[in-house]
Design goal:
Rossmann fold, six-stranded mixed β-sheet, 18 strands
Length: 543
């Protein structure tokens, strides 16, 4: 159990938390949500003791061990990989060090013998003899091969370090587990493994993530940060979102009777509960939802962007033809080779690759911003394109205010018209006079989406569109593309985004393309496709 009592945190006049009182119980997984800047990561730092609150306190059940996913990727650079994982259990690691130091003494005394015996007892009670094998197993499950286990952390690349630190946090069955964006830099197979690990985890988990599929898979509760408070709700993110939106619609419906509203909410709870999958966490949610009363469901105060794409004209039959497109990077490594496909009317295609640079280069080529080494592409004459690049820095070099920034991309120069598109992306009032070159990453993406809506294009090209966005913006973007009836070609690490939008999957590799008309879930779970992918990437690795 971890309890927060009368907690407040202020930075000058800014109040981040005010009189927060909340308890996180064993056996539950809490997904922390909130707008960008609401204090999600800060809350985890307060819970871990890294940050002291202005008032109030955090307490945990005596004897409980807390484990935290470290954000400093250089903290353990001088330690071997396997030791770094075991260090996740501080008490066990201290016993191991103290025990080894005693045995290394040249003048081993009777007192040393008694102390060593006591430490050996504690070591055995903590199953210390299994520590190395347990740590190695975790590392292997997270994609860190045996050959890396004895290397120093500083010898690993960034993605490998992230996985070692995640193994460190998970090691030794902690009573309380704090995870801040644990799926960052993980491939889809490793994310699925982590989802299953947490689904079977019996203790308390508190996690911050922008991955809605991950939150839905692991969470029994949502911890919503809003108005400097933390409110706990039963269910995963989808349940919180759908139920809060339903309550909001009911709130605005003055004509519906109270009894009808309660019946509608209760029916929603029962439907959602019945659809829970068979995993442990989902089963736990199902039991919790069955006990939920409709009065616990509250309308959300969140604001969601209004993302609406309206094309000026319909697409013709010819959309995009690509033949034998190939590209190497500056070092001569093959990014992709012999990529050929036709984009058909109504296709919403997700582009996958193990190398993100391959995808970005592919998009830059078909948008005319880069050249291929060989091959060609041809867009249909009726096609108008709107592009959201992964790197948007070149668009924000000048010090325009947001009105003037967006005006440069619009034929209609009227300020009211421009403000309308900014307002849809939640830039209102004095915010429209912000300088475009000092915006945050999320604000820049929202500006780019405003620009896209202005174009009235009939084909959307999107390179990691959910990067830097909060859950509200991601959800709005997702809903907009689900409603989009025209062509889109995109990539994203957001599982839910891809699964609910794409009707076709194309994976570009250094030895060709895999092209399947199926959903993302079908693609990643197909054993034959998995074998084909391994061969196509493996054939290059062996050269």
């Amino acid at each position: 159990m971890i309890s927060v009592a009368n907690l407040s945190l202020r930075y000058g006049k800014r109040v981040l938390f005010e009189d927060v009182n909340v308890k996180f119980a064993p056996g539950n997984c809490y997904g922390v949500i909130g707008a960008n800047g609401a204090g999600k990561s800060t809350l985890l730092k307060i819970l871990s003791g890294e940050i002291d609150p202005s008032t109030g306190h955090v307490s945990i059940t005596p004897g409980d061990r807390m484990s935290v996913l470290k954000q400093n990727h250089f903290e353990f650079d001088e330690f071997p990989v396997l030791q770094t994982v075991i260090m996740g259990n501080k008490k066990l690691w201290q016993i191991m060090e103290e025990k080894d130091a005693i045995y290394a003494k040249p003048d081993f005394s009777d007192a040393d013998g008694l102390k060593a015996a006591d430490l050996e007892g504690q070591f055995a009670d903590m199953e210390g003899w299994n520590a190395e094998s347990d740590a190695a197993s975790l590392l292997n499950d997270l994609g860190i091969a045996d050959a890396l286990h004895t290397k120093l952390i500083k010898e690993l690349n960034g993605k490998e370090k992230v996985r070692v630190l995640l193994a460190q946090a998970l090691f030794g069955n902690p009573d309380i587990l704090l995870l801040d964006e644990p799926t960052n830099d993980l491939d889809v197979e490793t994310v699925i493994w982590l989802e299953n690990f947490l689904a079977d985890f019996q203790n308390t988990v508190i996690v911050v993530s922008h991955d809605r599929h991950f939150l839905d898979s692991v969470c029994t509760h949502v911890a919503d940060i809003d108005f400097a408070k933390v409110s706990l709700y039963t269910g995963n993110y989808s349940f919180w979102y759908q139920s809060s939106q339903l309550a909001l619609r009911q709130k605005s419906d003055q004509n519906k009777k109270v009894e009808d509203k309660r019946k509608e909410l209760q029916d929603f709870i029962e439907r959602f509960s019945a659809n829970a999958s068979k995993s442990r966490q989902a089963t736990s949610r199902k039991k919790l939802l069955e006990k939920l009363v409709v009065d616990d469901i509250q309308a959300s105060t969140r604001k969601y962007p209004g993302i609406i794409f309206r094309p000026d004209r319909e697409c013709g039959d010819q959309i995009l033809r690509i033949e034998n497109l190939s590209k190497k990077n500056a070092d001569g490594d093959v990014l992709f080779k012999y990529i050929s496909f036709n984009l058909d009317k109504g296709d919403k295609v997700v582009i996958l690759s193990k190398n993100p640079m391959a995808i970005s280069n592919f998009f830059e080529i078909i948008m005319g911003n880069n050249t291929a080494d060989s091959g060609e592409y041809v867009w249909g004459q009726t096609i108008t394109k709107s592009y959201l690049p992964n790197d948007n820095s070149s668009y924000f070099s000048a010090d325009y205010n947001l009105i003037d920034w967006l005006r440069q991309y619009s034929e209609e120069k009227d300020e009211t018209y421009i403000r309308g598109f900014l307002g849809k992306m939640l830039f209102s009032g004095e915010e429209v006079f912000k300088k475009s070159n000092v915006l945050s990453g999320g604000e820049k993406v929202r500006c780019m989406v405003s620009r896209m809506m202005l174009t009235n294009a009939n084909c959307l090209v999107l390179d990691e569109p959910t990067n830097h966005l909060d859950l509200e913006s991601i959800t709005a973007f997702n809903n907009a593309l689900m409603d989009w009836k025209h062509n889109a070609i995109f990539t994203s690490h957001d599982h839910e985004f891809v699964q609910t939008i794409a009707n076709r999957v194309i994976e570009i590799t250094p030895s060709g393309a895999i092209d399947k008309r199926m959903t993302y879930d079908e693609y990643i779970s197909n054993a034959e496709i998995k074998e084909q992918r391994e061969k196509m990437y493996g054939s290059v690795a062996k050269k």
